[in-house]
Protein: 3-dehydroquinate synthase
Organism: Pelagibacterium halotolerans
Amino acid sequence: MPLGARAYDIVIAPDAIDSAGARLAAMFPGARYGIVTDDNVASAQLPRLAASLDAAGLAHSEILVPAGEASKSWGHLQTVVDAILAARLERSDILIALGGGVIGDLAGFAASIARRGMDFVQIPTSLLAQVDSSVGGKTGINSSHGKNLVGAFHQPRLVLADLAALETLPPRQFAAGYAELAKYGLIDDEDLFFWLEANYPEIQAGGPARGEAIARACAAKARVVAEDERETGNRALLNLGHTFGHALEKATGYSDRLLHGEGVAIGMVLAHRFSAKLGLAPSQDAGRVEAHLKNAGLPTTLADIPGDLPPTPVLMDAIGQDKKVSRGALTFILTRGIGRAFIEKNVDPQTVATFLEEIR
Amino acid sequence: MPLGARAYDIVIAPDAIDSAGARLAAMFPGARYGIVTDDNVASAQLPRLAASLDAAGLAHSEILVPAGEASKSWGHLQTVVDAILAARLERSDILIALGGGVIGDLAGFAASIARRGMDFVQIPTSLLAQVDSSVGGKTGINSSHGKNLVGAFHQPRLVLADLAALETLPPRQFAAGYAELAKYGLIDDEDLFFWLEANYPEIQAGGPARGEAIARACAAKARVVAEDERETGNRALLNLGHTFGHALEKATGYSDRLLHGEGVAIGMVLAHRFSAKLGLAPSQDAGRVEAHLKNAGLPTTLADIPGDLPPTPVLMDAIGQDKKVSRGALTFILTRGIGRAFIEKNVDPQTVATFLEEIR
């Protein structure tokens, strides 16, 4: 990740957790470690990480939070920060986020504000975290007003993506992460999207294409973030599908009804369909995107979400509260076709509301 | 405040609040404003600020918190951030901190994490905030583990120090701010300290020397912060008196028993006495410092604090939890005499404990 003095490595390997101890010992002499993880990851991966740190003689303590998006809350943020202080971790010590996107966002934000900022390391164990949330420094929690509305830009010092951890990932979680992976193709790299279509069986089965896909996604994200760390410009392209997606996540209470990646999958299809409706993009591209995401086990329409959704005005309210708003006008990531996304800052809210009514 | 792209002006004037509207309108075209303030300042100064913003045609909403250090809490942080989001303030809008150090620390931290960071303006109305906390970008709240242990470095876009606001400041609050002012002389400018001794009556009475003293303090702080924004080196000198002071504040429950500046006053005297005991500084300097701070209406010894203090091991525990700790060794700001403070990173905890026992 090329960010000048704050540049960091992204290691993608089957044994990234097992070799973590040796790597950390070399990078941070004398540091102690706090490991933030959740119940699920604790049983699956924490023993591997603890063994690796023990073998390298590194002192560590654990901070457990419940699994699930609901842990990105004020209450759990305070719990993690208090645990950091209670463990007397100092500015020169290291917080490790071991888990999926929720753990990375929560632990990274806690690291950014504990003692006004301590270093942290991402060890993403979900596909979503490996291809997206662990890279780029966005951290945060959710608010009753919307998702990720409270947080900080805080870059990790190192990202260790462990491919073995993906072997135990439930298929639904794998699919949710795949939505973010496919996103990089849709934004500005149609060759990547076509390659993903062709190689999806091998990626899904865990062959060599899986590691290659993750590396290509990380490289794509690093390139965008390096050019615009604070999202004053093109970094917003990474939000393709996210404005619709965040509103749907809010409408479903950030619950298991709709995982983040699932909301993004629906949101990306809607962004393509909305762009087609505006005459910006060919509608067959929207169909091709939807077909591939559906093939990858993802929901692609509002009807795919179990249970009732709130009325359109409530969805529009959530869209208006998204961070991607400036001076009242709605900003959307629209597209001219696969691999040709762009930022549109002057989207008329009424046009969006009409579109949402039409597709319900 | 020279910080490259994040440089900002510090305006010190009798009518800084009254001219705020015109100044802000010129700096931030199109922005809306959220004003964070407390009950006390709301009655004394909010009408002036509201009138100034109204006259310039600037939209604003108010976010009120109770007066006092207890507002630097997780609960009030959440309240302020939620109010920012509920008011739909956007990244391009401006949060104004109108009040003393508590308001500046709390509002600045809220601004740093709302929507991952929005701009804010400091309008300090206490002497302490004008000479110290409003300048330099340290923001935060207190934790049950200690003071300012949760926070962020977030520089304001502008500081407006209103001299008229000091006219209504209670004498005890003025004295507490004066401790931080005198600190700049004690750190590295004996001429400033001697000038403060000579001009104290005029500073206290509100003559022209008061504005000059505030300007000299801000210039001193800006110089230190510009060289070391993130406190990896000499910025720690600004913590002179603060390690002892923070421990005493914690011991008195962050209450009216001991204001922050009062804790710093006692802490600075203790830092001088401790340095003298170690043979580093002449003991007559400690006496001179104590005499001047006492003359300015400040407490200077543990016995000056009303009520009982906890036993020395409890104070030592608080000292050990202070942020200025590295790898277990205690870091103190010690001195070789007035204007000759330095950072000592290897202070033996037992020596400090023995010193505290001797002076009780």
